[in-house]
Specification:
- 2 copies of one chain form a homodimer.
- In chain A, β11 and β12 form a beta hairpin.
- Chain A is 37% helix and 25% strand.
- The two termini of chain A are 28 Å apart.
- The longest helix of chain A is centred in the middle third of the chain and has 21 residues.
- In chain A, α2 crosses α10 and α2 packs parallel to α11.
- The radius of gyration of chain A is 20 Å and the shape is globular.
- Chain A contains 11 helices and 14 strands.
- In chain A, the strands form 4 sheets. Chain A has a 7-stranded mixed beta sheet with strand order 3-8-9-14-12-11-10. A 3-stranded antiparallel beta sheet of chain A has the order 4-6-5. In chain A, strands 1-2 form a two-stranded antiparallel sheet.
- Chain A has 283 residues and is of the alpha+beta class.
- The interface between A and B is large, with 67 and 67 residues.
Chain lengths: 283, 283
């Protein structure tokens, strides 16, 4: 395992509760990797944006979040004022009891791109929009695993919202770009269609999904998805009231990169040889 | 008010619950500003690191967090499995009820540097350590205010841990550097001693604090702290078991920048003229 060799152990520290600390070399590597993806975003003139680190329950509700992913959700809430004095007085806290917290009006984001669609609420698009954003995303999992599966991880996305043809062209061009990049840095990836759980509970949508790929994942090694291209059809356009000037809800699609998983793949592929990884990425 | 002019309204969107969306220009500006601060960190060979986006209740407890700041804390927790089906079935969620969540074992960080000290737990230092990190930090406040007071904001810190003299020299040099930078970009700042709430409940410490400045803030306009230099004495060294090779707990001090507040100050000072701000920062 990665973390067992001495060099690699120094590079990062991962815990059983899904938290990772990146040392200077991996911090540098993650910034370079993100800078590379941002170059691609710049080439297509995607607007870089920074979105809030908390999402409203009511906004996630509009996106059917609680119908599909209640088990993954991480609720953010305060400590009830009538229990604060108790906490102050007591020693040795390992947790905040459920009975001591307020109702939660926010969740941590589970994907970077939801905020992009919510931000366009009520917009009529006369041309496709391209947006890029990175966010710390959070998912509550049964178990965590090094850089492969974290409670909080970093997702960079490049999104297109507009007519179906523009979105499909966006996804096609990034599918090619990722494959070329992986080839150039000699990182063996396989491409596999996947099912997007967003649509899994609706049989009409599921039937649609089988007609053409809605989600394709780029897998490293034994099946770790490090990137994906996702066609949402007009799901977010409908839910967020984003319309096309020619009529009807807008289509959308995103290209998503799980940055810590890329670190895992690069460390594994190059046996932890950081100078070689840095040199390879600088290609 | 900033957000009332048309250009500025387009630059960011802030909400009453303390969340802000930055448009492309401000996203770019924040990245440039952070890059500038990172140059200073590089000059002193501070190690760049990325820490987990969640902190353990037990770790914060070691730092007396619940004795001092229980009211500011944002607890992160999951939805109880026996209530998930209920959420799935019901429509129109505006919140997750307190009775539906699990005990919380994590909080969102309220400062970027806590993780640095916790990461050095058990270390014996034979020379001062310099570390830089940026983090989304969170504080539960009575009210929020544009870019000035957010539920989640971005803090860049440059920390020194070591002998008292090294720490004090670090803080002194950054005090000068910030003042010079503010002069160069023509941003009027005043410097004021402040009290650090970490030490406010202990009269011996409070007496110590009055002997020499422990915290100084750089204030813009009507008193908005956009940066601070903080001398922690050996508080974190003691709490986290960080020792000096010559004996005794290590001292520490941090220089902290609230990036969104710098955006506010720059927008205000330059009347929202983004090209001029960018040109000024490129000095």
């Amino acid at each position: 395992m990665l973390a067992e060799t001495k060099e690699r152990a120094a590079a990062y520290r991962a815990t059983a509760d899904g938290l990772v600390t990146l040392g200077p070399e991996l911090t540098e590597l993650m910034m370079r990797l993100d800078a590379r993806i941002c170059e691609w975003a710049r080439e297509i003139q995607a607007a870089p944006m920074i979105f809030p680190p908390l999402m409203r329950v009511s906004d996630l509700d509009r996106l059917d979040y609680f119908r599909n992913f209640p088990h993954l959700g991480m609720v953010v809430t305060g400590i009830r004022s009538d229990h604060q004095a108790e906490l102050t007085a007591k020693a040795r806290h390992t947790h905040v009891a459920a009975g001591h917290v307020c109702d939660g009006h926010h969740l941590l984001p589970s994907a970077a791109c939801y905020n992009i669609y919510l931000d366009l609420d009520g917009t009529v698009l006369d041309r496709p929009r391209y947006v890029t954003t990175a966010a710390r995303c959070f998912r509550r999992e049964e178990h965590y695993d090094g850089l492969r599966r974290l409670a909080g991880f970093t997702m960079r996305e490049i999104v297109c919202i507009g007519p179906a043809a523009s979105v499909q062209e966006h996804l096609k061009s990034f599918r090619r770009r990722i494959a070329e990049f992986a080839g150039a840095i000699d990182l063996p990836l396989s491409i596999k269609p996947a099912t997007d759980p967003f649509f899994s509970q609706d049989s009409a949508r599921l039937a649609m999904q089988s007609l053409f790929p809605v989600k394709e994942e780029f897998l490293y090694g034994d099946g770790l998805a490090i990137a994906s291209v996702n066609f949402h059809r007009n799901f977010f356009g409908e839910k967020c009231g984003i319309s096309l000037a020619e009529g009807g809800p807008a289509f959308s699609g995103c290209v998503a990169f799980g940055l810590e998983r890329w670190l895992h793949a690069l460390l594994d592929r190059y046996d932890g040889d950081m100078p070689r990884i840095i040199a390879t990425l600088a290609l």
